[in-house]
Design a protein that fits this description.
Two copies of one chain form a homodimer. By secondary structure, chain A is of the alpha+beta class. Chain A contains six helices and three strands. In chain A, strands 1-3-2 form a three-stranded antiparallel β-sheet. In chain A, β2 and β3 form a beta hairpin. The first copy, chain A, is elongated. The structure holds a DNA duplex (30 and 30 nucleotides).
Chain lengths: 106, 106
DNA sequence: TAAACATATGAACAATTGCTCATATAAGCA
DNA sequence: TGCTTATATGAGCAATTGTTCATATGTTTA
């Protein structure tokens, strides 16, 4: 193995945890329901029943997905009466979606 | 559901296939071995045994992962004697990795 | 307070994933 | 031509995933 490749190996091996984290992030975007939810939330905050309605999947399934998104800090919530309103924690999430969309388009 | 949300619903429902495709793309990045391979290839083209060595995973496992990357057109190959040399199909892949890394760092 | 509505959660299950093992294919070399 | 090296591939398996179903929690309203 030549020297430049062993440098790459070193860099990646040393930062193995970082790549685990990166993979975990992408794994979350790797489901159509979740990425649709995230994309919708780039446009407007929404409550669970609204999300459930437009995705045509059950309230329970949406809640499970939202929990994943919340646990990984991609969305935050606030209560409004009976509803829980979900929104993105940061604008950077839109950048990630756009980045992937560009790849598909290109 | 208010009018602005039904517009979002429309946009997402109409482009459902696009989101499936987007999710499929991210799913590929959602594995630490694969994202390490892709990251390494942003620095230099490499053959299978080199990748296997630096990831410390078996040749067979690497081959399986490379097949996934090739099938989804993220990497391309050329033969050099006994070796098959893998490289990225396009520079945009680095952008996607950087984009995710920024999110983690931020 | 009781009924209705909105959301969350645990168990269970089928589908998918990423690996290993064994083996096939293909090129270089004695 | 046989032997070795490099890579690919199929079967099988354990682990993970995304859903459904049933039910729990929490809020509003009559």
């Amino acid at each position: 193995m030549d020297n430049s490749i062993s440098k790459i190996q070193g860099a990646i091996t040393r930062n193995s945890e970082l790549f685990e984290e990166l993979a975990s992030l992408y794994k979350i975007f790797g489901d159509a329901s979740r990425v649709k939810i995230l994309c919708a939330l780039t446009q407007s905050e929404m409550c669970v029943s609204e999300i459930s309605a437009f995705l045509s999947i059950s309230q329970s399934a949406v809640s499970h997905q939202l929990r994943i998104l919340k646990t990984s800090n991609l969305v935050k919530t606030r209560r409004d009466g009976k509803n829980i309103i979900y929104s993105l924690t940061d604008e950077h999430i839109k950048t990630i979606i756009d980045c992937g969309m560009e790849h598909i388009a290109g």
